[in-house]
Structure formats: structure tokens, C-alpha cells
Amino acid sequence: MRASIVGLIATVSAGPALACGPDTDCVLGDRTYRIAMPDGHDGAEPVGAIVFSHGYRGTARGLMRNGNLRRMISDMNLALIALKSKEDDWVLPNSPRHMDSDGSEEFSYVDAVLNHASDNFAIDTDRLMATGFSAGGMMTWNLACARPDSFAGFAPISGTFWLKPPQSCAGPVANVIHIHGDADRTVPLSGRPILETHQGDVFEALEMYADYGKFAPAKERRMGGLDCKERSNPNGDILNFCMFKGGHSFRSEFLKLAWETFETAGKL
After folding, report:
1. Closest residue by Cα to residue 148 from 180, 175, 174, 122
2. What is the pLDDT of residue 148?
3. Whole-angstrom distance, CA of residue 133 vs CA of residue 141
4. What is the pLDDT of residues 61-86, one digit of tens each?
5. Backbone φ/ψ region at 163: left (φ over 0), alpha (ψ -120 to 50), beta
6. How far apart, in whole angstroms, are the C-alpha atoms of residue 52 and residue 131?
7. Residues 131 and 123: beta-carbon distance below 8 Å
8. Cα 68 to Cα 57: distance, rounded to the nearest angstrom
9. How far apart are CA 149 and CA 128, in angstroms?
10. Which helix (H) or strand (E) holds 128?
11. Omega of the bond prior to 38 within 30 degrees of 0, cis?
């Protein structure tokens, strides 16, 4: 357990487990999250989980109200863990109003969520996928770079690093599937200015990670309505870039496709 979260975990663990779930916040100090186990779960058999970071001004409560997403993840016999930013947005490097952040506040929060969820629910920590839409996709890319060993796979949707990708990332090399609309104007593939900063360029992020992970040249493939460029490295790690026709939107089926891709590759 990282030293930065020892105090937070100790506070949470001092008393009996809090009653929380899809309709009630799980409280971690001054932060919260929500969790939905699969329908009919017996409370004992460990299940994998999709850990979702919301977009700008989103909430864990709002995510749990997405009935289609909830049903699909439950039908996959997985838990849905909905993260919640402290305020309107995630505190990430080069993000608006947080230009000097190194992201450690958010990374420690995710550490705490995973510890609390695995201590209080039947979660298989070897079968976790991080995902998020828009600003949540930016959060997901940052997690892939800073916490690659916390998740078996990462599926950022319509969001990447702010301003520019980092020079390098923490090891081990993560498995990443980036999904984006080809006509996205809210988070264009090349980004756009926001206040004193700029959304990052998706292609720069992919090339940085391809170099970092020693990924081979991409092979094109059509799957699940997406046009994908797939890469792998000598260790069998995955770096895929998939586009759909459309703008700044999200479909639950994207997560199922990403999960099944990681699962087929033996990552989950």
C-alpha cells in the first residue's frame, strides 16, 4: 500500500464497513465512489469490475442512472465502480486550473477506491478495466501511465492527456484501447484550446506509448462497428486505436468490445 494513502485507508477501515452501493456513496475521507455488483450476485464469488471515470461535471450518481450501461455490465457478470472527481473535474497535469498538478491526488484516490472496494465487496483485483469518457478518458490515459499495474486493461474514450503526453510512463507496459469519434468537435483528435491550456493530440499520445512499449506497426481491422489499428509488442501487450463514425458520444457496447478484446488476449 502506498504511503500517501495509508491515512485515508486507516480512516475508512477504523469502523465497520459503510453501507454503500449504486444508490449510496461509499465515503473515503472527503472523496466518494459508487459500486454496483451484478444482479443476483451472492456476495461471495469474486467478480471482475469496470472502473469508470465520468466526464466534466459528471457524477457517480449520474453514471449509475445509465440503465443500459448497468444492465450490460451486470449481464457480463461484472461490477461497475463509478469514480467521482472532488469538484467539477479531475485534477490532472496541464488541465485547466490545475496546470501544476502532477496528478498524484487523483492517483492516490483511485488507490484508495480499489483498496476499499476489494476489502468490502467480492472484487477480483486481477480482472479490472479502467475506462472513462471525455475528461474521464483523460483520467484513464493518466492512470495507464501512472498506475499500469493497478488494472489489466485501459479503455479511454474520447479523451487523452492534456497539452502533451508525458516523456515516459511507469512500468509495466499497460494494455490500452483508445476509442474516439472521427468527427468529434468537443474533444477533436488533435485537441483544441481550453483556457490557458490545450487538449492533447490523440496521435501524439499513441505514438509516445508505442515508442515506450516497443509496439510493432499497426494492422488495420474492422470490428464491432469500429475501424481499428491494432498493435502488439514482443510481450503480447495491446495498443489499439479504434474510431467510429460520429462526434463526441459514448456507447456502452464500446466497453464490452474492449473487455472482450482484453479477455480474448488473456489479459483478464
Report:
1. 174
2. 98
3. 11
4. 999 999 999 999 999 999 999 999 99
5. left
6. 5
7. no
8. 21
9. 10
10. strand 123-133
11. no
Residue pair 113/128 in contact (Cβ under 8 Å)? The answer is: no
DSSP element (H, E) containing 140: helix 135-146
Q: What is the 3-state secondary structure (H, E, C) of 85-120?
A: CCCCCCCCCCECCECCCCCHHHHHHHHHHHHHHHHH
Q: Look at the block and give the residue holding cell 475508512.
A: 12
Q: Give the dihedral sign, CA 253/199/84/148.
A: positive
CA dist 112 to 33, 253, 264, Å? 10, 28, 29
CA atoms within 13 A on the CB side of 17: 10
Three-state secondary structure call for residue 265: coil
Indicate whether this model's pTM tops 0.85. Answer: yes
Q: Which three cell numbers stand for residue 98?
A: 490545475
Contacts of 253 by beta carbon, 8 Å cutoff, 6+ apart: 72, 224, 225
Q: Which of 110, 104, 118 is nearest to 53 (CA)?
A: 110
